[in-house]
Amino acid sequence: MLEVRSLSVERGREEILHDISFVAGAGALGLLGVNGAGKSTLLRSLAGLLPPRSGSVLIDGADVYEGRRRAAASRQVALVPQDFDFPGTFTVREFLCHMAWMRAVPRRSSAARVDAALEAVDLQRQAGRRLNTLSGGMARRAAIAQALLADPAVLLLDESTTGLDPVQRAEIRLLLRSLAASRCVVLASHIVEDIEQLATRVAVLHHGRLLFDGATADVAGPSGDPARAGGLEAGFISLIGGDTA
Amino acid sequence: MRTLIRRSSTVGFVPVLVVVQAFCLLQRGTPWLGEWDWTADWAGGVTVVTGPLLAGCTAFEVLRWRTAATWSLLRQTPRGGHAAWLCALPVLVIGVVVHVVATASVLVATAMAGGEPRIDTGFVLVVVLPVVALAAAASIGAATAACWRSLLAVPLAAAIVFGLTAFPDRLMLPDVLKVGGTTGSLVGLTWDSRQQAAALAVLVMVSVFAVVVMHARDAVRRGPASRSIVAASAVALVAAVVLAQSVPSSRLRPSGAPIRYACTAASGTTVCLASQTSRQLAWLAAQIIRQSEPLAAIGVRLPRRYQQVVPYRRQPDGVAPILLEPDSINARRGDARRVPDLLAMPALCAADTGEVPPPDEVFVARSAISAWLSVRNGLSETSDYRVEVFGEWLGQTAPDQQAWIRTTYAQLTACAYADVRLPESVVLP
């Protein structure tokens, strides 16, 4: 389980995230916000890469920023960054083997985990191909595969379908839906359609603040507000007051 | 690690490293071939060029890994703390392997050429120091790229390492990154163990400091512990530099160990060369015996022992000096035309190494005897010396020449330089 308590993050003197709190269990949590809302910063902070000014991030009760428990917590969370630019001379299998080591997967089970991850993202036949020869969709699946190696409780995905064609996006969505069945998947995106189709729960970020945290249907549904009757997109725009800058 | 090495961008650069290594090793020919210590030292000197290259390669490789997305991916993992050095290590391994293979190759070649393998502390350090220097260069490259994430870090890292290696005095730093490359024979010399220890300390601390800076820069939290470690490593580096300033800057010092000679004796003449540089002993002994025959034939009393002059060692009395040319000291065969010069100097006298040089007459007399021998041995013609002050004398009849040679050779052997008189036909300008 992912628990975020009063998280505030600064970069220089600028506050990027302000007093963010939410709890998420198994299932897909959509993180919705315009460009610059703080989605990627929040994901990096959840991944243990951006220490907060205040607040905490707990995964199954272990703080990702607390010295002794940090290692245990970092095994339970995996980040799939927005871009995938791992050195392209590696084959898919080599990349996954290296990441298995980085993710502290025991050596004896490493090969089996790599095979399982390849199977999970349906890249078995591409295992021997170099990363720089993969299509955008395949590269994205390889990036997701590395996150699955240590079987994390929390999977953080940053704009996972950006730049993909409709078929590839559909494939990735299918994959993420299956992954969300057994773990917490936090999916940051500014593509409302992805969130709408994948997430049962949505957190709306705007200017570093959490504007909404609840069921996707509550953003998209009427709930007494006529402006939010036009689906998730209309509800989202209504929530941020039309401020898309 | 094997995958990291195989997929490193530096793999494509290996042929360049090999060519540069070979060029640096062979650019002056192979005067070191056959002399164990000189070979090891010369091989280490290649790091003056390969060190900056490796620093640039490391910076490039680190930049390749440090793209925002890949770096987030790596650093987020439980072993993310190793990411900083892990991407630099394959480059260092490749550089060290190329260097070690090149060094081993030239040492094997030297051993096959007759060089006596000699493994002591000085030798071990002179072989290890270049590897540590490469590690320091790679660390500087990695740290430069970590601190300045631009492609300009590549030439900058190379320039920093080259500056520290080639111009330490201008930077008011000890000359420790230069860990080899002596251009002359090491016979009679040995490596200064204090200088080697200081170099090792500084190089290790440079590497440690660079790695610590890199880690501190990447640390998720830069707390007091992180800052303390950076400060402690900086203090240790400064201490090592100060220590290095207090030891002699010269890498070599006169050896106190007895010089071992390899000798050969024939026709009552013994010829000895230092064991380290004895590759041309058989050839030289044969030449001395054969080319001195014209002197023996006219009744000149020749030295019974010829021995190589070793720097910082006193030549024993009554022993003729052998001064070998630095470029051909380890050649299997020297230049036969230079043997008459050697034979024309039957003793190394105090005046030859003192502050007041011998009279000009001595130099002209040696030249005249050398020319006479050269002509008698068929190595040159009388006409070749027409312009020399003794040109006319060389064309005179044999009896007049022989008497002067006998007298003068005895004076040169006895170090009676003041008694040396030139023939009447030879007038000094």
TrEMBL record, chain B:
The chain crosses the membrane at residues 12-30, 42-63, 83-111, 123-143, 150-167, 197-216, 228-247. Keywords: Membrane, Transmembrane, Transmembrane helix. This is Uncharacterized protein.
